[in-house]
Amino acid sequence: MASCNKPQLYLTTIVLTVVFLTANQVVEGRRKGLCARTAYPKLCRSLVKGSNPRLATLSTICALETKTRRAIANAAKYKKGNKQVTICHAKLRDAAFNLRKAKNSLNRRHSKMLRIFLTRAVSDYGVCVNAFVDSHQVNTVQNAADDLRKTGTNCLFLSTLIRRRSNRRRKRN
After folding, report:
1. Which of 21, 62, 69, 79 is most exposed, with the fewest beta carbons within 10 Å of its own?
2. What mean pLDDT value characterizes the chain?
3. Which GO molecular function entries does the Swiss-Prot or TrEMBL record give (predicted)?
């Protein structure tokens, strides 16, 4: 009888292995699915865990807020005597304000305002980057602003994947 159970044990082990590997691929596929169509998928995957667009947007906004605060502090060190850094410092502060408003809009489930504030933040980062490009300067403030612009662009895309509850209810009825 022990020999009869041995093939069943092997078959069970193979089935469980296939199920486990398939489940991992599905989870990874969902995560890649959120980031696959973003402008910067590799950057997105480093910030997004899971497959919920709302949580992905929230985690990306939180990462943007943290990185923006660091960039503001860095720009404050170098803004004296450098017009581009002064412009960038002001725009980074504007972006921080817009990110706070975006987070509030997300919490209130107001998707239109969420996208408006995220668009403003991305625009603020873009103005900062362009100030350096126009003056042919490359420095840590510009590099941080460019990274923030890319992350903000991904965040804006992720926000478009959020579905409002009221829309789902209307479609079901």
Report:
1. 21
2. 83
3. enzyme inhibitor activity
